[in-house]
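re: ur question from the group chat, yeah i did fold both. here u go
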Amino acid sequence: MAEQLTALADDRALLGRTSTAERVSDILRSRIADGYFPPGTRLSEDGIGGALGVSRNTLREAFRLLTHERLLVHELNRGVFVRVLTVEDVEDIYRTRSLVECAVVRGLGEPPYRLDQVAAAVAEGERATAEHDWKALGTANIHFHRELVALAGSERTDELMRSVFAELRLAFHVVDDPRRLHEPYLARNREILRALQDGDRREAERLLETYLAASLQRVVEVYRRRVAP
């Protein structure tokens, strides 16, 4: 926990002078999504509040917001914990991803598309692979899908999927072989990017559907083996 709190202290400057529970929840959501707080981690009010320099009431409100997003869970007389997902949670996350991400690609309209950030996420994954940093590759893959969703130009959709992707990262924490989970999808990311660069959104949607189905199968397989029912 000491390392995580040090990293949070670095985020303190993001709060500015008008600290709010929403900003605190944004920081914690990002840290959860990036893997700083694994599932089952108890979040210390004193430690996190001190690292961010916020009041107990502000932090509790941030916890409440993230509990509503299903990233945290409050256990009576024990405290607040990062949620441990179930197989059903994972299946629902992928169902939501398929509905939203495929709809975004399907509705892109006529090319050319603004793909700079999508391409940057692919490059991020390539760097992580070259460094054999499989956790960073998982983060890059999430960034790739986040940038796909951003092509819709919808703040509401971005907000919805931000919490979905944070939940997804919770699922990745139980994977015993992150390289096996993440590495094959870098090539799929390149294929989807190439299809969009060619202006073929139908092919991009087909590739994305296949991608999400394969990823769901793999993650659920791991969950059934490693997470108690």
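okk and heres the other one u asked abt
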Amino acid sequence: MIFILSKILLFIIKPIVWIFVLLIFAVASKQAKQRKRYLICALIIFFLFSNGFIVGKIINSYEAGYPRAGKYDIGIILGGFSGLNKRNNEIAFNWAGDRLFQAIALYKKGQIKQLLLSSGNSNLIDRQVKEADLAIKYLKLIGIPDSAILIENQSRNTIENARYSLALIAKRNPKAKVLVITSAWHIPRAKLIFDKQTKQKIEYYPTNFSRSTEFELSDFIIPNASALGTWEMLFKEWIGLIGIKRKSWGE
């Protein structure tokens, strides 16, 4: 039930949904003054949440930086970076594909001995395809040996990523030096979750930073559709952090 409610919440926190609802109220309103208020509110929300500079400054201050260079026994790659391309039944990488690609680069440079793919399926309807299973096929295809690959394909969210991955590491190599690899904006929440479930020190490696640290004139004055998505992502992370701190484990 909590898992389903979290999916509903992800829909409600979208700024574009708020704008759409306000426009519906404006159209349905019979009073001109009230209709005007709804339209003004919709415009204010649109311009505020579509401003690239505002969201850029906030997300840049929130995203994690790089850890000090070192070598690790296991790199845990958190899922959400791919899906199934049903046209050819092969893996299809999405906007978070950098999680896997950066992990591969770290392995190739000798900074990680083993890659632990941590991801099952978070789909509410089709639960058959496991992301980690798709990714392991890709790693083998590009020449990563079986001895360098560990797999955890049961997790549906970050909390389960931590629970199942740490349990697997405890069985195989309890003294392993661990690096968690995930999106820069995801690290604050992932760190809180992992640190709650283990006493060992874990480092975190950021990937696919959401926005540039430099801004152009257009970022100040021209509405940006991607800014709406960035706010949605931030709201999800902040709500997740609040839930974790209140011991109400969300996605």
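fwiw on the second one: Residues 40 and 98 are 39 Å apart (CA to CA). The longest strand covers residues 72-78. idk if thats what u expected
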